[in-house]
Design goal:
Number of domains: 1
Structural class: mainly alpha
Helix content: over 70%
Strand content: under 5%
Order of helices and strands: HHHH
Distance between the termini: 42 Å
Number of strands: 0
Shape: globular
Length: about 80
């Protein structure tokens, strides 16, 4: 529990990035192109957050970066499939 409290500011920022992305998708449901932009911005923000977080804690490895990119890509694929139908 001590570790979670230590990282709380980082996790709050991540929550904010994801909340921004979800809110943008909902608020701009009438504009598919803007939703794509919001999705891309959220994915980039997620990867950037992961890189900065792990860099600050000195445990950033190429495998970690690839994992964040893979999860962001998976999220974009799911999002694109949902908004294009």
């Amino acid at each position: 529990m001590k570790s979670f409290a230590k990282h709380l500011p980082h996790y709050l920022l991540l929550f904010g990035i994801l909340l921004f992305g979800f809110s943008g998708l909902v608020l701009f449901s009438y504009d598919r192109n803007f939703q794509v932009g919001v999705g891309l911005a959220t994915a980039i923000g997620y990867v950037a957050w992961g890189v900065v977080h792990h860099f600050l804690h000195k445990d950033l490895y190429i495998e970690t970066f690839i994992e964040y990119v893979a999860i962001a890509t998976l999220g974009l694929v799911i999002m694109f499939s949902l908004i294009s139908s």
